Amino acid sequence: MKAYKGKSVFGGIAIGKIQVFGRGEKQVERAKTENTEAEIRRYRQATKEAVIQLKALYKKALREVGEDCAAIFEIHQMLLQDGSYRESIEHIIQTQQASAEYAVARTGDHFARMFASMEDDYMRVRAADVKDISRRLHSVLQGGEEDKYSLKEPVIIVAEDLAPSEIARFDRDMALAFVTVHGSPDSHTAILARNMGIPALVGAGLSLDDAMDGKQGIVDGTDGIFYVEPDGETMGRMRQAGQEELQKKAFLQTLKGKENSTLDGQNILLHANIGNMRDLADALQNDAGGIGLFRSEFIYLEREDFPTEEEQFRIYRAVAEAMGKKRVIIRTLDIGADKQCGYFRMEKEENPAMGCRGVRLCLTRQEIFMTQLRALFRASVFGEIAIMYPMITSVWEVRKIKEITEEVKAQLRARGTAYGEPEQGIMIETPAAAIISDQLAGEVDFFSIGTNDLTQYLLAVDRQNTALDAFRDPHHPAVLRMIETVVENAHRAGIWAGICGELGADPELIRDFLAMGVDELSVSPGRILPVRKIILETDVSGYKNEWGKSRTSG
Ligand code: PEP
Ligand code: MG
């Protein structure tokens, strides 16, 4: 047995087979074939199988994320069967007596380069699709291996690291747990894993070894330990711990439908953070009082091309309708920093966390922003949508956004399209915004404090950099004082203030947040009921705040 310590992202115990997830591209060797006719037949058969896989993926995506997001799998089917792609592969097999694998790899590279050099944006993004279908064909030729994100059985996924766009593609019903060698608990990858509500560890001190693949493993998400080939004693202990977890979960279920009221009668709203429709189902399942943060950038990250206004409208409308009278705060896209999206073709930046992300990108590339705003204003007719803008630092940005939203409404009026008047708020996640929150409060309907970025920028500690763990202190008095100031400024101006960063679910701070008068906590769906339990057991009366003092020993 081997045991590795990692940082817990989400608690719970998972026991199952390990699947090592590698993302390295293999170089395809040139292999000669004598029988070119047989090789062409092999290639044609592989195409048929790949089309069957894509049809199944289309159906799955249709069920889980809707028609608009599923459409990519139809495009892939068309590309696979495209005449010039097929001719190129068969030509290479015939003239170079090459293997089908080699011909597919060469054609894939060649077509991807050709698409990438095109003027038209739509055609340029097809480069990634051609690479994708060529990889799929190659894996079918190599023995029917499927899309690397589609899991055939329940497994513990172990990887060097996972990008946010990768973790979002795994089959949720089959992923038992995640373990990554790199990554920090505040990264978006970790946030996504947390939203999935399954045990997850990052920064696990192991050297990734393919030999681990297929072996039995245990992820103890609560204590942050990953066991490989556990011995009998550990297995027994973990099974017991798993049983206890189940009992705790069963108790939490009994809290559904209860008010979020402290023992002394103070109430707070408890909402969910989501990134897609699947998270929405988890939010409803966990009795969320509303959606406090829909990270809309995941709509962009989970696809290969810009979502159209219509596609976005359908998603936002579906969320609003599913939540009925409950408020749904949709944050406009916060692309940039660790959330990179190839088809945005962003300039490489020395320091992307301080670069063109969030509202800066939206104000720089207004067409993308306006498309999203049109979809949001239209969808707000169908429910209680509120719009929230990320990465604000200045009053002028909010005023500029107002000008743009007025223009968007004028466009919709000119088209004769109905739209609503959603509440509009901002994220307070930069020190600048927190410090001038008294001025900003007069401009908007609400504040939501993004403690992940606020901590990163206040303490000058990169949220991705695990080497700085000793310096990352989300309980730092500077962070807590800042939250208190923002809440006070909001209330003074007659608006409400919530917290949607990960700190909102920190069991040690919930009493402080209640004492500060925070109006809403928005947390990952799996944390709603545990946070409710704490609220129900808390008495805030006479509580003397401690947040002016450092709680850490240093
Ligand atoms: C935050 O910064 O706290 C936040 C909620 O936004 P994100 O984690 O998506 O940057
Ligand atoms: Mg943020």
Q: How many β-strand stretches?
A: 16
- Unique bound compounds: phosphoenolpyruvate, magnesium ion
Oligomer: single chain
Helix/strand structural class = alpha/beta
CATH architecture label of the largest domain = Alpha-Beta Barrel
Provide the CATH top-level class of the largest domain: Alpha Beta
Shape: globular
Helix percent band = 40-55%
Question: What composes the largest sheet?
Answer: 8 strands, mixed
Which strand order does the major sheet show?
1-8-7-3-4-5-6-2
Computed Rg? 25 Å
Give the amount of beta strand, in percent. Answer: 5-15%
Mean pLDDT: 90
Termini gap:
35 Å
| Corresponding CATH superfamily of the largest domain | Phosphoenolpyruvate-binding domains
Named CATH topology of the largest domain: TIM Barrel
Structural overview:
With 554 residues, this protein is an alpha/beta fold. Helices cover 45% and strands 14% of the residues. It has 20 helices and 16 strands. It is globular and about 85 Å long. Mean pLDDT is 90; it is low at 550-554. The structure holds phosphoenolpyruvate (PEP) and magnesium ion. Phosphoenolpyruvate binds next to strand 10 and helix 17.
Write the layout of secondary structure elements.
Layout: E1 2-5, E2 7-10, E3 13-21, H1 36-65, H2 67-80, H3 83-96, H4 100-116, H5 121-141, E4 155-159, H6 164-167, E5 175-180, H7 188-196, E6 200-202, E7 216-220, E8 225-228, H8 232-253, E9 269-274, H9 277-285, E10 291-295, H10 297-301, H11 309-323, E11 327-331, H12 359-364, H13 366-379, E12 384-389, H14 395-415, E13 423-428, H15 431-435, H16 437-440, E14 446-449, H17 451-459, H18 477-492, E15 496-499, H19 510-516, E16 520-523, H20 528-537
Parallel strand pairs: 3-4, 4-5, 5-6, 9-10, 9-16, 10-11, 11-12, 12-13, 13-14, 14-15, 15-16
Antiparallel strand pairs: 1-8, 2-6, 3-7, 7-8
Helix pairs in contact: 1-2, 1-5, 2-5, 3-4, 4-5, 11-13, 13-14
